[in-house]
Each structure stands twice: as structure tokens, then as C-alpha cells.
Amino acid sequence: MLKLIVYYLPMPFVVYLLYLLSGSCLAGGLFFLGSFPFLIRMTEIKSENLRKKLKIFVSNYLFLYKTLCFMTLSAIGLGILGWGTIIKTPAFIWLSLVFYILSMWRGYQNYIQIKIKEYTVEISDYDTELNLVFLSDIHLSELRSINYVKEIVEKVNGLSADCILVGGDTIESHMEYLEDKGFDQTLKKMRSEYGVYGVLGNHEYTGDLNKNMEYLDRCGIKILRDESIIIKKLEFIFRDDKTNDSRKKLKDIYKSVYPKIVVDHRPKFEEALSEGAVLQISGHTHGGQFFPVNLGYMLKYKVIYGYKKIKNTAVIVSSGAGTGFFTYRTWSKSEIVRITIRGKAHE
């Protein structure tokens, strides 16, 4: 992509694109830097109605802010390139408005329409087959509707999984906000032969951890923290989130000679590679979700979405089935992941 920009586009246009990129990153960074303390405190507001309205307002405001920054930078950039007459036309204003509306509509559709993403992972000397469903980053909150959660459960059950894995950030912050919503009774209807197991994400630590874990238990999700279980000659290792500074080392959790599958909320997989895991499954990044947040994830993690084979370890990172209170996705789509584990001898 970089070669395409450098070799095939006119140099003024290259400068313009770099200008837009750096300017948008700066504008986005300033917004998050200035608003972060407020965003953290907003989750502590007791009034559900006020809290919900504020989250919707901030979400829409951020999207408008990003669009206005982009269009302002575009106008300045066009002026620098000597194309300033374009921004004085009514067409530029109307196109800016259309761009904003279509971007918001598409971003909301990417969030609300949950797709099924399928992967196949082959393991040497594995003589059976196992079908997994991986569900992460639902972010249950007052912004999530019961119908949305029902759709997730219907899609999960429609995949007839042998085992369901939940990858953390199931709760946005405080479980007290979820009482009487019916989310727990709905999620409890997820079915698989071997059960529903999950890990904690960073958001479960935001509120009262013990209460959040009790709520997840009511949802029918058995949370394991630095523990492992064996299913069909595979050892599944469920890591506690990195928020817990005293979480165990991966090698200290191993308890069998079976191939290892690591479930860890955040896609840091160096330890899984060094300890010989055949697969790590993670979430957390939302697939980037929107610009410029995706750039931050790209700098922090080697894989922010999809499948990658590194040496003898496969890595799968899901964009997740929900979002926080930014209820749009311009860089990814909501998803549920189906993973088929099989031996290479089945080819």
C-alpha cells in the first residue's frame, strides 16, 4: 500500500494524505486526552437515564468531531495545494454532510449486524474434531438492548458448538446497572455439549469484580482464572486479565501433555509462542473499531484482528460481538467466531 502511494500517486496528493493522517491523529488524540477523565467518571453516574443519554451524546459527538476534523483538515489541505476554490462551493458542503450521514449509518450497521466468522485450525497428530464458538466483548450495559442479546444467543446456539468460549469484557463496568434487564436469563440459554467457559477482561475489573463475577455466573458462564480444563484431548488454558498483576505464568498453569489452547482477553501472544501453545484466542481490540483508535491498537499489538500463524502457534483475534458506548464501527464489524479444530490427517 505504501509503495502504491509513493510511486503511483502525484507527490502533492501524497503530501495531502500524510497531512490528513497526521492532522486527524493529532485531533483525535487531543479529544481523548481532554475527555478521558470525564469518560471514566461518567460510568459512576447513578441515574440510569442520565447516564444513558450522556453516553449516546458523547458517542455521537465524537463521531461528529472526527468528521468535522477530517473535513476541516481536508479544506485546509486543499487550500495549501491551491485547490481552495473547491471548498467555497455548495457541493463541498453538501458532500461533507452526505459523508457524515453515510459514515454514521454504515458505522451503526457494522455494529448492529452480527456476522459469523469461521476459521479452521489444524493440529498435528490430533485424531478427532472439535467445534468451538468464541464470543467476546459484548459490553453489557444500559445501552445494550435485550433483543440484541437474544440475537447473540440465537446465533450462538445455531452453530451447534461442542464448547462455547467467552473472551472477556462481557460486562461494561458495573453489574448493578444490569439488574432487571434480563440479560442474565437470556445468556443462560446458550447451549453446548461441554459447557460455557470464559475469562475476565479489563472491563470486569472496572466495577466490583466479585459482583461482576457473580453476575457472569448467573449468565451461565463459568469464569476460570489461570486455570485449565481438558476437552477431547485438548487442554484449554483460561488466563486472568493482565489487570491482575499477580496472574500466573502460562507454564505454571499447564497440567497435561495434550496440545494447548490459550484463551486470553488481550492479544499478547508472545508467552503462548514461547510455551508451545498451538492456538491463542483473544478479543479486546474490537478489530480497531474506528480511526484513529485502530492506529493505537496497531502500535500496541502485532495482530488486532483475524487469523495469523506464527511459527507453530495460530493466533485468532475477534472484533467482538458488541462495543462500549461508542455504538458504531467504521473499521470493523460485530462478529461471533466459529473455530473448527481438527487433525491434519483429516485432509
UniProtKB/TrEMBL annotation:
Gene3D superfamilies of this UniProt entry?
3.60.21.10
Q: Where is the Calcineurin-like phosphoesterase domain?
A: 131-287
- Give the UniProt keywords, A-Z: Membrane, Transmembrane, Transmembrane helix
Q: Which Pfam families match?
A: Metallophos
Q: Which PROSITE patterns does the protein's record reference? A: PROKAR_LIPOPROTEIN
Q: Which domain of life is it from?
A: Bacteria
Transmembrane parts of this sequence = 16-40, 61-85, 91-108
Q: Which protein, by its recorded name, is this? A: Metallophosphoesterase
| Organism of origin | Psychrilyobacter piezotolerans
